[in-house]
Amino acid sequence: MKGRSLLGDYAESLRRPEFWIYSTWLELVTKYRRSRLGLFWVFLPPFLYAFVVGGFFARLQGYDIASFIPHMAIGYVLFRFVTVSLNESTTTCAHHAAFILDGRVRLTDYMLRVMAKAGFYLVFTIPVVALALWISPTFEPLGLVTLLPSMLLLLLNVGWMAAIVAIIGARLTDVYEFIGSIMMFGFLFTPIIWTAEQVPAGTFRGSVARANPLFHFVELVRAPILGESLEPFTIAYVIGLLVIGWLAAALVYRRYARFVPVWV
């Protein structure tokens, strides 16, 4: 494992997706096959958050329900994608200890398996988001043009984060609880049940909220779709985080990935 490259291993895993993408799909299919309602349980949480919780908070804050529901829907599904990816990355090496000890030491396979699972959940929520956008008076179809590059930036950022927490999680099992607590706390500082205009840039509350990466991940994807203005700082923040994060993740992976078979 000495001197393994994070970028090299990710590239090799992407060229050989048989393990991480097909096994993830098989896991989801077999999991919901045992349920009477099957994949309905995938659609239920985002539907409830978007239309029930979203409607409640719209009324509570005096927003138009038809405008707030898509805000809530997109914010929730993006937050869940990041949360699932990072939470499960903390334990992915331990869960695949048998594979690792058997010599399958390209750890990016296990990181991508977690991200693929979160990605499948995200794809399954498309009908819910589409329904929310259909009732939205602020939906901007041209904003969908930005969806591909913004989602790519989101995926790349989650990629380096997953690598770091997977390596640390292989050594310290408490990281799972720590990341879970951070993500729950981060939910309150992400514009999902509230809007970015409630915490203007330049104010103390605005500065605290904008220190949260999830704030920018959600706004980067959602704002153009809902016809909202995207702060230039958000674009700079996400790109800057991408560069710094990948440099840090590459160093961590090169230095510590070789110890993972011992730790698990």
Automatic annotation (TrEMBL):
Keyword annotations from UniProtKB, A to Z: Cell membrane, Membrane, Polysaccharide transport, Sugar transport, Transmembrane, Transmembrane helix, Transport
Domain ABC-2 type transporter transmembrane: 23-223
Membrane topology according to the record: Multi-pass membrane protein
Transmembrane segments: 38-59, 65-82, 114-135, 147-168, 175-194, 234-253
The UniProt record lists the keyword Hydrolase: no
Localization of this protein: Cell membrane
Sequence similarity: Belongs to the ABC-2 integral membrane protein family.
Protein's name in the database: ABC transporter permease
